[in-house]
Amino acid sequence: DVRLVESGGGMVQPGGSLRLSCTASGVTISSCLMSWVRKAPGKGPERVSRINSNGDVVYYLDSVKGRFTMSRDNAKNALYLQMDSLRPEDTALYYCSHEALSLSGQGTQVTVSS
After folding, report:
1. Minimal CB count within 10 Å: which of 19, 27, 54, 79?
2. φ, ψ for residue 61 (rounded to 5)?
């Protein structure tokens, strides 16, 4: 059973931080093209960040550059998204995506509000 499971979401005040995790089972993600994607209410999904097979982060959405950091732990078969200086407009359902398999998890909700 191939699964991606996200965690770490929650409600934070503007300026706060969260660290999202994505753990994989049934598939090794260490050399895969992976993305974090978010979907806000009333909007289409948008890619937040992307890491290539070499472990290089090759894309950040302009609005998150300098605030979000994507990483991967091959030993734990996991993906992370460190989110700092959060803004209300970052509120969305965040999910990780295995691009080659067109597979995503169920997502974790991030709400930024005072």
Report:
1. 54
2. -60, 140
Residue 30 has pLDDT above 90, yes or no: no
Q: What is the mean pLDDT of residues 62-71?
A: 98
The pLDDT mean for the chain works out to: 96
The candidate with the shortest Cα–Cα distance to 50, out of 31, 64, 36, is: 36
pLDDT given at position 1: 86
Buried-state track 2-26, b at ≥16 Cβ within 10 A, e below 16: eebbbebbeebeeeeebebbbbbee
Q: Give the C-alpha separation, 79 to 114, whole Å.
A: 28
Give the separation between CA 38 and CA 49, rounded to whole angstroms. Answer: 10
Return the exposure string of 71-97: e unless at least 16 CB atoms fall within 10 Å of the residue's CB, then b. ebeeeebbbbbebeebeeebbbbbbbb
